[in-house]
Amino acid sequence: MADWDSDDHRDDDGDWGQRDGDGRAQSDGGDWDTGTDPQPRGASPDAAGGSGDTDATATLGSVLKMSGISLGLVGIALVVSNAAFLLVAVLATAVGVNVLDDLALQLVLSTVLLQGIGFGTAALVYLRYNDLGFEYVRARMPTWNDIKWTIGAFVAGYGLLIAGSLLLTALGISSEGHSIAETASGNPEILLVLIPLSFLLVGPGEELLFRGVIQNAFVDRVGVGGGIVASSAIFVSIHLPNYGWTDGLPTLGVLFVVTMVWGYVYERTDSLFVPAMAHGAFNAVQFAALYASMTSGAATGLLW
Fold this sequence. Notes:
One of its GO terms (molecular function) is endopeptidase activity. Pfam families: Rce1-like. Helix 1 crosses helix 2 (103-129). The protein has one domain (51-295). By secondary structure, it is mostly helical. It contains eight helices and no strands.
């Protein structure tokens, strides 16, 4: 696929991190995620001059502050989705459906409400508070080039998953499966529902918040490379409970590398569609593989 490098979103000089003037203007005041003007996209912390120690301290402070804001946004998403879940549960009980007794229904509802409503609400809160338009997240109609990048990103991500799993096995390190595997063990059919939801809600919802908002905010402050790493670390950190906390760190290490692929292709293509669909396909294939494994009597884990 040699023509990927001819991507019409890339600047003539090949500097794929610079996108000034594309609607990413900061608000004039009330910027709650920094307190100082962000660095230009793709610029190094020393670009503005001054002592290296001062710049390094300011950069570290900016990263820590944005990390706190990012976790706060995740908290908003959880509060909104849990409130919506309780409302749905009450309404369902009123018509004779006990959601709390059905783990499969709880899983599907939680997925819909968190990725579909919670993450979307958190993203909108950030954009509204900072007086940013939706163009900030770079969501647009996909081109054929975007579709090629999506396929490539999926192949790269899944290849890294396989390579990481083989490496852990070779090192004698056990990998921890996602909690969804345990939930689905008694009712594998719910995995068939999660396959389309991966494309419709999970991939788009997570990428909207973690790439469209959080990664963009980090990149504005520490440059493209640092922004990809920081947003990927935040993404991985919120999955700790799903993988048994410290027991899942080796598996999450693999997920961290895979997640950086989504961040990279987002910056290269300027399109939220690419990481959203690549991420969705990545999850969907694992749900399908887990379903096939469970219904055939084999055991497997799940990395998400």
